[in-house]
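explain this.
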Amino acid sequence: MKEKIRFFISPYFLSRFYRLQSIKRIVKKYKIFGTVLDIGCGSKPYRSLFDNIKEYRGIDFKDYSVNKDFPAGKPDYYFSDKYIKTLTLPFKNESFDNVVAFQVLEHHPNPQKLINEMFRIVKNKGYILLTTPFLGGIHEEPNDYQRFTKYGLIELFKLYKCELLEIIKQGSLFSTISMLLNESLNSFAAKNKFFYFISVLIYLPFFLFSYISFFLDMIFKSDKIFFNYLILVKK
């Protein structure tokens, strides 16, 4: 119950809501089943969206980010010092039926290597599901390296024999404005206790604009301004 309340009043509500809805729709539409590896899984906030799978495993660093707006989980595997040097995942070829990575691609120093590793460890006819930001503030510094357009994402998959099934744009003009404003307020609040107190006092209009933006997105749809991508590929 506590997590649900935090989710709906969070400054990141809009971005997370759009992301959850897109992932949920994709999992249902393509009937994803079998085993899933979540790369950069954190506390596994998207685990509950995969209803019909056999097993959901995750890998991350030992100091992984905990998302307090979702029920807590933890990685099943941890990246070793060797991974930092080689960027090679510690799994055999075709170890999993499906591989996912949510909001990870922008943090990887070699995104093409990450895609290559995902293709290596996923089984034939398995799904590779990614989400990654298009617009948004720098985060988890200094490990924030790039942003992608649709065309940049397509380029990452050109080396492989695969079927590109979906590229979904998440958000629109007003939700993007709201998200950027909330990110700025969150950064302001993180400076010290005084700034945090000020942020709490002025948060209400930011909060209300988040929900208003959700409805404005339906009326004023933008094909050029949005904040996130979802991409689904079948090996």
